[in-house]
Design goal:
The complex is a heterodimer of chains A (146) and B (559).
Chain A lengths: L3 E3 L13 E7 L6 H12 L3 E9 L1 H10 L4 E6 L4 H14 L6 E5 L3 H10 L3 E3 L5 H15 L1
Parallel strand pairs in A: 2-3, 2-4, 4-5, 5-6
Antiparallel strand pairs in A: 1-3
Helix pairs in contact in A: 2-3, 3-4
Chain B lengths: L2 H23 L31 H4 L16 H4 L3 E2 L2 E2 L4 H13 L5 E3 L3 H4 L23 H7 L9 E4 L5 H14 L8 E4 L4 H7 L6 H18 L3 E2 L1 E4 L1 H6 L3 H21 L5 H4 L3 E7 L3 H22 L5 H4 L3 E5 L11 H15 L4 E3 L12 H17 L13 H24 L2 H6 L2 H19 L27 H15 L2 H16 L5 H9 L4 H12 L9
Parallel strand pairs in B: 1-10, 2-3, 3-4, 4-5, 5-6, 7-8, 8-9, 9-10
Classes of the chains: A alpha/beta (146), B alpha/beta (559).
């Protein structure tokens, strides 16, 4: 697994709240443009971003999230397997006692987005979401978590 | 006074007498007009921008079907043969995909384009743990020759041309196609189609790789050589810029990275010392994106054609015209589809398709308006085919070859893009070629940077995007979305288990051993893989052997 830990600014260290988040491509899907842009935007907004990259199984994500002690888990899926993959991810997080908000991005039909939120996903961010909004949602997720 | 001097004189007068008074009263909307590449567009173009820059018709354009092919690869272009209407399709089980192909052919599609699911693209059988959720999602599941037979049930493989988006497992999947054709008494030498087989762009942008770059290049080269010797009508590779554009590349980056990949493939085949460049180069094909920025896209296609002709002639010493022809498939840009106000996508894709046609494409896929939300429905895909038919039959843009050729703006843009793309290729050459450049993350980094910059420009409103940063509507889109039947995987897996029970295990073992020996040694992998497929070894088993011998690639993550 390749993990990049990037401190955006020295200010980060002064912030007491955990501003560390994880971004990963869940499943076998390789479309990583969105995940990379989001990772970069969060970094530029002062978050510490653990970017896991492509081909991550739910187990990989949970393991990294615990190890890196992140405050939010962001996963991106464009292959249509979001319902099953996210359901597994949430189940596994519960089993491992990992209680942090999950944000889902990708090609998610509107009905599925509603369903995902019912399952406990903090927010679903589809194509066309402004980065400002992305950053806001991650901020809000961190607040909820703290 | 020469003609150019006369034009220059008159332009000065025009500027003073006509232009300036108007500008005083009605200033232009922006201080600068920029293309997506960042070229500053002049107010009006004249012969001063082309001939004035030492421009020569015969050197820069020539005639269609002749060097340097700027105007097109065939002398009559669409007057003779229309582009192939080829919608990328495939989902669910073999039966679902067969039904979609028959539907597409029934509404006037002229070639097939197969989409495979992620397990197939990554060499995993559908009952593999990592594969389970992805079976049949973004394409058809293809674990064995049996599934290929079902997909082509009732479709004449000797007549239709079939394109396959398959890379890391290209030999396995093409072998299944060949095996099914042969079982129907069709010789592989008459099969027409294309296999993507472009592994380099997987490392750069698409991410469906399995093995490390070096053995992967050997695998791709084996396929190119085998096809050149046995399948003269088959395009052995589709060197792709589409995925670079989708990942964020600018137009010049898109063609530069693609041509740099192409140079690498040609070098690898020549290094094997088994065939002359003119034996395999005519079957190298290309794949680009078409964005909405119409003229720059047309210029991009024309520049790519001229550059490839030059590379083949001057660098590789090709003698055959066919080796110098850049033949390409186009897909409209998926990243320019919006989930917001989705019907607007129909208008965008029409302009994008027009760019591809004015740019001289050989085949075309038009994205469906609902694809920012899900796989396309029959209804939406029909409109994609109809867009192509309106362009072909109603618009008249096909009546003459390269209708924009000679337009001062287009020729100026073509030159600008070409110049910028050569600079990028030089950069890659300095790094030691594309395989090295990928290993150090150069194209990946450039693309990620461009993607982020683009996004920031959209957010600042510097790049107008209807429904995203202007004319925004709050309402949620209400459209019908296609859902893949979750029972698909049970069906595919139970068929796979049956196949494993019924086949001859000794033959399978021997065939897989043969694949292993060749992978460890130096021969061509195509014949033993074809043999393995015929005795019903599965995709996952064959790929598993290669994984064992070559290992797996873990990419450096650059963002």
């Amino acid at each position: 697994m390749s993990v990049n830990t990037l401190d955006a600014t020295s200010e980060v260290k002064n912030i007491k709240r955990r501003r560390r988040v994880l971004v990963a491509k869940l499943g076998l899907d390789g479309h990583d443009r969105g995940a990379k842009v989001v990772a970069r935007a969060l970094r530029d907004a002062g978050f510490e971003v653990i970017y896991l990259g492509v081909h991550q199984a739910p187990e990989d994500v949970v393991e990294a999230a615990i190890e890196e002690d992140v405050g939010v888990v962001g996963v991106s899926i464009l292959s249509g397997s979001h319902m099953e993959l996210v359901s597994d991810l949430l189940k596994l997080m519960k089993e491992k006692g990992l209680n942090v908000p999950v944000i889902v991005g990708g090609i998610i039909p509107p009905d599925d987005a509603k369903e995902l939120k019912k399952m406990g996903v903090f927010e679903v961010l589809g194509p066309g979401t402004p980065l400002r909004k992305v950053v806001e949602v991650y901020e809000k997720a961190l607040e909820v978590n703290n | 006074m020469t003609d150019l001097e006369k034009i220059r004189e008159r332009m000065k007068e025009w500027s003073k007498e006509v232009l300036e008074p108007v500008l005083k009263k009605f200033p232009e909307r922006k201080a600068k007009f920029l293309t997506e590449e960042g070229f500053e567009v002049r107010r009006v173009y004249t012969p001063l921008d082309t001939e004035g820059a030492g421009w020569e018709y015969l050197e820069k354009l020539g005639f269609p079907g002749d060097y340097p092919f700027t105007r097109g690869v065939y002398p009559t272009m669409y007057r003779g043969r229309p582009w192939t209407i080829r919608q990328y399709a495939g989902f669910g089980s073999a039966e679902d995909t067969n039904a979609r192909y028959r539907y597409l052919l029934s509404i006037g599609q002229t070639g097939l384009s197969m989409a495979f699911d992620l397990p197939t693209q990554l060499g995993l059988d559908p009952d593999h743990k990592l594969a389970w959720y992805e079976v049949g999602k973004v394409g058809v599941s293809m674990p064995s020759v049996k599934e290929m037979d079902l997909v082509f049930n009732g479709i004449p493989m000797d007549k239709v041309s079939t394109s396959m988006t398959i890379n890391a497992t290209a030999i396995e999947v093409l072998s299944m196609y060949v095996a099914v054709a042969e079982s129907r008494g069709i010789d592989k030498s008459i099969l027409r189609g294309t296999v993507q087989n472009d592994i380099l762009k997987e490392y750069i942008a698409r991410n469906n790789y399995i093995y490390p770059p070096q053995p992967s290049m050997r695998y791709a080269t084996d396929l190119i050589i085998y096809a050149a010797q046995n399948m003269p009508k088959w395009n052995s590779i589709s060197i792709s810029g589409y995925h670079f554009e989708e990942a964020g590349a600018t137009p010049a980056m898109e063609i530069a990275f693609t041509l740099a990949d192409a140079i690498e493939y040609v070098k690898h085949v020549l290094e094997r010392g088994v065939m002359d460049v003119d034996k395999f180069a005519p079957r190298l094909s290309f794949f680009f994106a078409a964005r909405t920025n119409l003229f720059e896209q047309v210029a991009k296609f024309r520049a790519a054609r001229r550059m490839w002709a030059k590379i083949m002639k001057e660098r590789f010493g090709a003698k055959s015209r066919r080796s110098m022809m850049l033949r390409f498939h186009t897909q409209t840009a998926g990243v320019l589809l919006t989930a917001q106000q989705p019907l607007v996508n129909l208008i965008r894709t029409t302009i994008q398709a027009l760019a591809a046609v004015l740019g001289g494409t050989q085949s075309l896929h038009v994205n469906s308006y609902d694809e920012a939300l899900s796989l396309p429905t029959e209804e939406s895909v029909k409109l994609s085919v109809r867009v192509q038919q309106v362009l072909l039959y109603e618009s008249g843009v096909v009546d003459t070859v390269d209708p924009l050729g000679g337009a001062y703006y287009i020729e100026w843009l073509t030159d600008q893009i070409e110049e910028k793309a050569w600079k990028i290729i030089d950069e890659i050459e300095k790094l030691g070629g594309m395989v090295r450049a990928i290993e150090v993350g150069y194209p990946q980094r450039e693309i990620a940077k461009a993607a982020y910059e683009w996004q920031l420009k959209v957010e600042k409103g510097e790049i107008p995007f209807i429904g995203i940063n202007m004319f925004v509507e709050e309402e949620e889109p209400k459209i019908k979305v296609l859902k893949v039947d979750p029972k698909v995987r049970e069906r595919v897996v139970s068929r796979l288990r049956k196949l494993r029970e019924e086949r001859d295990p000794i033959k399978v073992r021997d065939a897989l051993d043969k694949v292993r020996r060749v992978a460890e040694g130096e021969g061509n992998l195509f014949p033993p893989i074809l043999e393995a497929v015929k005795v019903k070894a599965t995709l996952g088993e064959i790929s598993g052997v290669l994984r064992d011998v070559w290992g797996e690639w873990r990419a450096p993550e650059v963002y």
